[in-house]
Amino acid sequence: MLITVESDTSKATAEARELVLAAQRGDMAAFGGLYARFVRFVHGIVLARTPPAEAEDLVQEVFLLALRKLKDLRDPAAFGGWIASIARNCASDFHRRGTKSVELTEELPANVPKQISELEAKVILRIIQKLPEAYRETLILRLVEGMTGPEIAARTGLSHGSVRVNLHRGMEMLRDALHMRLSR
Amino acid sequence: MSEQYLWDRTGEPDPEIVQLEQTLTALRMAEREPSLVMQFAQPQNVVVIEKRWRPWVFALGLATSVVVAVVSWMVFRPHLQPGVWEAHQSTGSPELAGKLFTQGPIEPGAWLATNSNSFVRLRTTIGELDVQPGTELSLVESRTQRQRFVMRYGTIHARISALPGLFVVDTPSARAIDLGCEYTLKVERDGTGELAVSAGWVQLQHSWRQSLVPAGTLAKIAADGTLSPAYFQDAAPAFQQALVKFTLEPALDVETRKHTFETILREARKRDSFTLLNLFSRAEADERVELFDRLNQFVPAPEHITREIARNWQVSSMDAWWPVVEKALGLTEIKKSGKRLGDVE
Fold it and tell me: Which tens digits make up the pLDDT trace of B47-77?
């Protein structure tokens, strides 16, 4: 089973590599393929650092920069890690620009309703954003973007073991933080 | 904590993780946009201020406007400006914000409407947009990173050459994201619609649902935002009908669902493999095994994708089959050449 999953991962990487090579030759459809495969991943990376209301615009900014710089990417197989760096830099630039955003109080409304609410989601996101970087990215990719561990490994270039550890530790820290809030 | 569920969503679901997934899905990219319903529900905010004009003021104003318009037209005619959509060609009596509109730029936020005899071709640096008769739409975002129209109903034909994701059209039920392409989008007043792609491909999405629509195929949109997989326009009529029924009609009874699914499998051709591959996410465990068998007849699965993998399908289970199917159908070459899939066989 492990071999199968690792095999899927390497095939996904190989597929991305082919798309990068084609996009570097000017094939816009191939770049479209990269966009479709990586857009959730990039959104997750950005969301780990910025308010949700800003994330989508920053995602567009990331892909715009990626298109401009794609010819400089020497190892096409490293596209995931490369575009993740661009996403992190764009998020940092966003904060350096001093763009104002609404600060959440982290206080859940009384009698938290069971139904899904965006407010509740934003409060939890804010808690995740305070976790160490490796954990918050992995958790957001898993819990917000719906990616599985093997998918996260394929996109980030991390080993399955590292992603497993990040997920496990991040989830433990998130649980502790959520339980602390409930017990306050 | 269920380690296995946290890892790849297999094994026994962990209730706390499931709850977190459900809550946080609200922040997923496709779901973060402001409610489209609100945008479509709001009437036009057009404020008309009536003033009494003296005749000479009117004449002077008119003369000045004509001079300014002519000079502007002569100076700016050859240049298209990024983010500015201008009427390049029109017939009939299209209206912008309730006034006749036959040339010049469209104002962001104003509604452009064509009646049954009107047509407008809009143009900007990234491409052209034909607004067909009986359409109402508005440019709501015009920035370097995003050109976004909202369309209430009607038909548009877009020819875009831009960064994927830059050109977006929102309809009451779905969002069409251009990935470098040419397409026609039809939207009925009840929110149902259809997207037909002529070149390149388009990502159609509503909430977490998404359908990738390549050249030569079309996808249907239900009023609630459910999307059909893309299918070829020359597929057997019985295949098309069954596919739309299976994917768009909610809560089919067991017998009807079984019969509909059998029709899809029976009527499918090798060319429909692309559509079949899209059905794994919509099928139940036993159906997925049948789907695997049928698709495997047309385009053999990579060795590691087995019936058991199909039965226990997850989001990435079929990833390695995609390039094989695309290659078998010649889709990769068509993407590069910009032709329709039908042109090649």
Answer: 222 233 334 444 445 455 544 544 444 444 4
Angle separating helix axes A133-143 and B15-24, nearest 10 degrees: 80
Beta-carbon separation of A118 and B26 below 8 A: yes
Reported pTM: 0.60
| Whole-number average pLDDT of chain A | 80
Spatial separation of the C-alpha atoms in residues B206 and A75, rounded to whole Å: 34
Residue A142 has a pLDDT of 93
Q: State the smallest CA–CA distance between residue A35 and chain B in angstroms.
A: 7
Which residues in chain A have Cβ-Cβ distances shorter than 8 Å to B8?
A: 5, 148-150
> In B168-282, where does DSSP find H-type helix?
237-248, 254-267, 273-278
Q: Which of B284, B286, B288 is nearest to B276 (CA)?
A: B288
Q: Which residue, A144, A154, A175, is CA-closest to B14?
A: A175
| Residue listed under structure tokens 């007849």 | B297
pLDDT at res. B30: 56
CA distance B304 to chain A (A): 6
Instruction: Please tell me which of the candidates B24, B336, B338 has its beta carbon nearest to residue A121.
Output: B24
Contact A29 B179 (CB under 8 A): yes
| A120 part of contact set with chain B, CB < 8 Å | yes
